[in-house]
Amino acid sequence: MPVAVLLYEVMQLKGRLPSQLAADIGVSHATMSRWLAGRDVPSPRSCRRLADYSGICIQKVLFVAGHMPRVAREAAPEWPEFREYARLKYPDELDEGTVGMIEGLIEQRRAAKNSGR
Hints:
Elements: H1 3-14, H2 18-25, H3 29-37, H4 44-54, H5 58-65, H6 68-74, H7 82-89, H8 96-114
Helix pairs in contact: 2-3, 4-5
């Protein structure tokens, strides 16, 4: 999922415009514009500010911004549940029924691995 989707979600949640969100988290309007256009991503520090501001867990924000692999080496964060990940990564492609079906397949695979197959 592009960072822009997460940013638009936060703007909608908070009722803010891009310039207002930029000011709220302490970045320039130009920086916010680059993030929204997909030309840049928030730094880990900006991800922290965005997470604190929005109430979204830091691991999710870092994951969306592409910083999660580095974080995963430094610490063992909790990965987002599939439903949350799918909603962010494929907001228009997957409906609730499809997500439920995929979750069922994931659980079947986990059960098969745990039973020694």
